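Design a sequence for this backbone.
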């Protein structure tokens, strides 16, 4: 589900953006990545998330990975927390773009 983050000897700042596959979330991912921050783009739909990462990488925002996250599913939240801990140690920035579906 998640793409592997590049390993480096130096600490990289890590941002998680929920709802990063479109709209303002997508643009926030783009801006953060273009400023050297490693971005974990999250959304519920795996296909849409991976497509968004490809678009970002094609627009020169290279340091973006995808991880599935459904804020109504605690297992995906735990999985994301484990992913961040393993690959980054800590989370530096959290941007929550979330609207509860009706």
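Sequence:
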């Amino acid at each position: 589900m998640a793409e592997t983050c590049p390993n480096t000897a130096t600490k990289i700042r890590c941002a998680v953006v929920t709802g990063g596959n479109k709209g303002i979330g997508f643009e926030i991912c783009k801006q953060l990545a273009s400023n050297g921050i490693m971005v974990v783009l999250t959304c519920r739909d795996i296909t849409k998330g991976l497509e968004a990462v490809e678009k970002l990488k094609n627009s020169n925002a290279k340091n973006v990975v995808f991880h599935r996250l459904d804020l109504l599913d605690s297992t995906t939240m735990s999985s994301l927390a484990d992913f961040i801990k393993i690959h980054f140690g800590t989370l530096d920035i959290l941007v929550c773009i979330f609207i509860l579906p009706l």
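The helical segments are 23-34, 46-58, 74-87.
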